[in-house]
Every structure is written in structure tokens, then in C-alpha cells.
Design a protein that fits this description.
Elements lengths: L3 E2 L3 H10 L4 E7 L4 H15 L6 E7 L4 H11 L7 E6 L2 E7 L5 H8 L1
Parallel strand pairs: 1-3, 2-3
Antiparallel strand pairs: 2-4, 4-5
Helix pairs in contact: 2-4
């Protein structure tokens, strides 16, 4: 299973709408941060193994897509952090973790 990258506000709005029917798992990723690089590896490892097929997986590059990243923080009322994983259900935050807490094991525990 793969993630899709969200780069526009329109795409983010679509993801938010879809969360009413299907959980959306967002990874906010900083392309300049080693902790974030580690989080991305953990995210991809989770998706390679046995991810929950009933969810959609999304990635936002926080520097390249700053307006999207800011809008997510605003819409979900979640303080922006990076790296950060946010599980969105029914248009609101269901679970979030950041920095070194973004691990394959943590994702499996919450999402499976």
C-alpha cells in the first residue's frame, strides 16, 4: 500500500471530506529534518507490512506545502509539529503523535 502526497488546499479539503466515510492517516514530513526522515521510514515500513486496508494514507511536506500544513493544524485544532502523524476520522483528530513517537509499532497499535 502507498501513501499519496497532498500539495494543495483543494486536495486537503477532499481528504477531510473523505474522513467522514474512511479514516485518513496523515504524515506531516519535513524534508530537512533527520527525525522526520526516520518517521517517514517507520511510516513506509508500516505500509509495507500489514497496514489497515480500511484507511487512506497521506503525506504532506511541511516546507514545500506550508499553506496545506497550516490549514491542517487549523482545521483539526492540532498544534503543528513535524514529524507528526494524525489519524483523522469524521473530520476531526482521532489520534496524533509526533517526533520519535512516530513508529511502526505505535501506528500498528492504534490503527490495526
Amino acid at each position: 500500500m502507498d501513501w499519496i502526497e497532498v500539495t494543495t488546499l483543494e486536495e486537503w479539503n477532499e481528504v477531510l471530506q473523505k474522513s467522514s466515510k474512511r479514516g485518513q492517516v496523515l504524515l506531516k514530513h519535513s524534508t530537512t529534518c533527520p527525525v522526520s526522515a526516520n518517521a517517514l521510514q517507520e511510516y513506509e515500513q508500516y505500509l509495507k507490512d500489514t497496514p489497515n486496508d480500511n484507511l487512506d494514507y497521506v503525506m504532506i511536506k511541511v516546507i514545500e506545502s506550508r499553506p496545506v500544513s497550516n490549514k491542517i493544524a487549523e482545521d483539526l485544532n492540532v498544534k503543528h509539529e513535524s514529524p507528526q502523524i494524525i489519524y483523522v476520522k469524521d473530520k476531526s483528530k482521532f489520534w496524533t503523535a509526533s517526533h520519535w513517537s512516530v513508529t511502526k509499532a505505535h501506528m500498528a497499535a492504534v490503527l490495526d
